[in-house]
């Protein structure tokens, strides 16, 4: 990986978030905290950017209770104002109304979309922006739910690879147990990113950085990238 000055990157990110929020005429930031590394980093940086105008939302949705405890532990360690909004019953109620057949991914993608809806409620209410947590590895692969965790106003970590976010997290003193957790979208019990993708973030990041790596990694990255191009664009418009 590239040698980087993570203290300088952290200061740059804080300054960037402040400028973007101010350019938008907004007053602060709302961040969803999952108990994972990316959102812990973004919550800590947003708190630095807006010490008194930053809210974290912890939104379990049939989630592992340890993740909620981890998110609360980070919020308390860094004195971050947070609310817990449990979306489980909302999710189950909606699914009971609309479900036609079993489809794990179609059902699971509703969870990040309910979180997005909730984040925007608080953003509207407080004149805050929704600060996302997607990193360069996820954006490159399109490994996020369209209009779910991809439905955000700012993507400050979008130029940092997953492995670089880990270095940034260490520099920010994010608790080790969060840094060490296997990355997971938490969409179903036992899901891990690396199992779903079939390759490790180390290998993915090396390939993104250098264009080199085993054939399997190349095909996973290139196919995912091609399949998800639409996720990073505005919807197609029929031009008159
Ligand atoms: N060419 C095209 N042009 C315009 N739109 C197109 C399209 N192809 C599909 N679509 C639309 O996109 C939909 C598919 O995209 P989407 O609904 O996102 O669904 P999809 O990409 O199938 O699933 C989301 C993936 O992201 C992963 N994820 C989700 C959440 C968080 C994280 C994480 O680690 O942080 C990872 C999740 O595990 C899963 O692998 C289609 O149903 C269709 O509506
Ligand atoms: N239970 C949750 N409560 C609040 N926000 C959540 C929750 N789960 C996911 N999110 C939001 O959606 C983003 C995508 O989360 P996800 O769990 O899919 O994996 P991730 O990209 O590995 O992020 P993280 O490392 O923060 O878990 C999170 O970073 C967070 O902002």
UniProtKB/TrEMBL annotation:
Q: Name one GO biological process term.
A: NAD+ biosynthetic process
Q: Which InterPro entries match?
A: NAD/GMP_synthase (IPR022310), NAD_synthase (IPR003694), NH(3)-dep_NAD(+)_synth (IPR022926), Rossmann-like_a/b/a_fold (IPR014729)
Report the catalytic activity: deamido-NAD(+) + NH4(+) + ATP = AMP + diphosphate + NAD(+) + H(+)
Listed binding positions for deamido-NAD(+) are 113, 146, 153, 230-231
Residue sites binding ATP per the record: 32-39, 133, 162, 184
Q: Where does Mg(2+) bind?
A: 38, 138
What protein family is recorded?
Belongs to the NAD synthetase family.
**Its quaternary structure?**
Homodimer.
The record describes the protein's role as: Catalyzes the ATP-dependent amidation of deamido-NAD to form NAD. Uses ammonia as a nitrogen source.
Q: What is this protein called?
A: NH(3)-dependent NAD(+) synthetase
Organism this protein belongs to? Halanaerobacter jeridensis
